[in-house]
Write a structure and sequence with these properties.
- The chain is of the alpha/beta class and 527 residues long.
- Helices cover 33% and strands 20% of the residues.
- The chain is built from 14 helices and 18 strands.
- The strands form three sheets. An eight-stranded mixed beta sheet has the order 1-12-14-13-15-18-16-17. An eight-stranded mixed beta sheet has the order 4-3-10-6-7-8-9-5, sandwiched between helices. It has a two-stranded antiparallel sheet with strand order 2-11.
- The longest helix has 20 residues.
- The chain starts with 8 loop residues before the first helix and ends in a 19-residue tail after the last helix.
Length: 527
């Protein structure tokens, strides 16, 4: 795999000189000037992020080096636009400006909130200004959960505040809160072993070990109903993260309709571990919990859709995007604002370069992923019987750390089984991704997809999920710390490059990834 080292001033000058003297290298200088995007009426109150003056030149050198070295991109035909697309993404500044506006001016975007609706209006107007086609915002009715005021206080064996974040969809406490003794459990099995009298009327604390996100998040989603079935009056759940600086993480729960709905909040890993040690010493723990959470009637929201209409096969579609909503804490930067801006800006750059692929290339900013998945389902429902028109669906919802590539999923097919349909799609994607090896983002892995494209995948659309190094995403996930300062601009540009190159290549390819008539094996709903 070819990787670039940041060049020195002489190397930058030599590279640019070589570009200017080599007629076979397509110039990308015409797209370098920044283009301002429409802003909402509210102004940022923080200083604008600036980029060192030398950065565009350095990035330009890196981009052009693709065409001057032995990287896979150098084997492309001279008129292939992939190097131009890649180069444009690596030197771009405007995509970051979009992300800065979304996070700094608009902020977090919970479904039903005024902030999400402001973001929808801003994005759709800016897309039209940029010249993207068929911009629309089809209405989606979404759940409207409101956090309200919330607090927790440890009353015994010490007296101090407990940092909490109520879990999405949770009910609130009665007026005046709940004051009760605590019972600490370390797993569902531990809960099941306890006699009823040790649970009834108590607050259950899930002080569970970190076993990766999938292994720990089940206590957030199902813990309230499991405890309610045993007579608990509330639950406090260890946040789903492996590293913490006393930061609670929110997220959605799911109530079992057969059980009482009791209040549920996340506590920090530090407090969960402390309570476990105190309980092991035989000391009583007592907590007062106050939560003003409530669910209001469904609210009107919308998906945001824009596209570049295909030149030869306009009815065939490659769709990509992320979820536009976020939790009501932080800025929704990694989860999932940066993905939305990267997918949107990938189309913007292709349009600015004057390119139009064979098939339609579409971006969707899906609403209501966090606490309902209504946006993804509404998009699928809008297609009716035309779902086979979708050649591929790309979702980015794992943060914007250094991108590695994409993972491929076909519902009902084991990615390691050697299935010929899967293998054909896998090898085609590897060839398309080869130019991205130069920025370390050319790996195609087995298994992939996403929550918002799940409905499409269940009807036979190949699903692709972006893969990153995943070093810190769950440190910030669903917290007040998910803010723009955690996003590396270089990683963001690489994400734009990956989405732009792969979106273009899938839409331009002479062949579909899988045959149009392919459907998942019957009776299997999993990827």
């Amino acid at each position: 795999m070819t990787r670039f080292q940041t060049p020195g001033p002489r190397e930058v000058s030599d590279t640019i000189s070589s570009m200017r003297s080599n007629p076979s290298i397509p110039s990308i200088l015409s797209i370098l000037p920044a283009r301002r995007i429409r802003r909402s009426s509210r102004k940022a109150t923080t200083p604008k992020t600036t980029t060192p003056a030398c950065a565009p030149a350095l990035l330009l050198a890196l981009a052009l080096a693709l065409l001057l070295t032995g990287s896979p991109a150098s084997a492309l035909p001279p008129d292939d636009p992939v190097p131009r697309i890649l180069g444009a993404a690596l030197v771009d500044q405007d995509g970051w400006e979009k992300l800065e506006h979304l996070t700094t001016v608009i902020g977090h975007r919970l479904s039903g909130s005024p902030q999400l609706e402001e973001a929808i209006v801003w994005a759709s107007e800016a897309m039209r200004d940029e010249g993207l086609e068929n911009v629309r915002t089809p209405e989606v009715m979404v759940p409207y959960w409101v956090r309200g005021e919330e607090s927790a206080e440890l009353l015994a064996p010490q007296r101090r505040p407990l940092p909490i974040l109520g879990l999405g969809r949770s009910v609130g406490t009665p007026e005046g809160g709940i004051e009760a003794p605590v019972v600490v459990v370390e797993s569902f099995d531990h809960l099941d072993l306890l006699p009823d009298e040790e649970i009834e009327g108590r607050i259950v604390v899930y002080a569970v070990p970190w076993e990766g996100y999938g292994g720990t998040v089940i206590y957030r989603s199902a813990g309230a109903s499991r405890a309610a079935a045993r007579g608990a009056v509330a639950v406090l759940v260890r946040s789903a993260t492996g590293r913490s600086l006393s930061t609670p993480h929110t997220g959605a729960l799911r109530y079992d309709e057969a059980e009482p709905m009791i209040p549920a909040a996340a506590i920090t890993p530090e407090d969960a571990e402390w309570m476990k040690r105190v309980a092991q010493r035989g000391e009583e723990i007592r907590v007062r919990l106050t939560m003003g959470a409530k669910t209001l009637p469904d609210a009107a929201s919308a998906n945001v859709i824009a596209e570049i209409v295909g030149s030869e096969l306009p009815d065939e579609v490659v769709v990509m995007g992320g979820h536009y909503d976020s939790w009501d804490v932080g800025q929704g930067a990694h989860d999932d604002g940066a993905a939305c801006m990267a997918a949107w800006h990938a189309l913007t750059l292709i349009h600015r370069l004057g390119l139009r692929p064979r098939r339609t290339l579409r971006v969707v900013l899906w609403t209501n992923e966090e606490n309902g998945l209504r946006g993804g389902q509404a998009y699928r429902d809008s297609l009716g019987d035309d779902v086979a028109s979708h050649v591929a669906a790309i979702e980015m919802d794992s943060g914007v750390e250094t991108p590695l590539g994409l993972g491929l999923g076909l519902v009902g097919i084991d990615a390691e089984s050697g299935d010929p349909v899967y293998e054909g799609a896998y090898e085609a994607l590897r060839a398309m991704a080869a130019p991205l090896e130069a920025i370390g983002a050319g790996t195609i892995s087995r298994g992939g997809g996403g929550a918002d494209i799940g409905p499409l995948m269940r009807d036979g659309v190949p699903g692709l999920g972006m893969r990153t190094v995943g070093e810190h995403y769950f440190d910030w996930h669903h917290t007040w710390a998910d803010t723009l300062d955690k996003v590396d601009p270089q990683d963001f540009r690489k994400a734009v490059a990956l989405l732009a190159v792969m979106g273009w290549s899938l839409a331009e390819s002479p062949d579909r990834l899988v045959p149009a008539e392919w459907t998942p094996p019957p009776g299997d709903e999993e990827e």
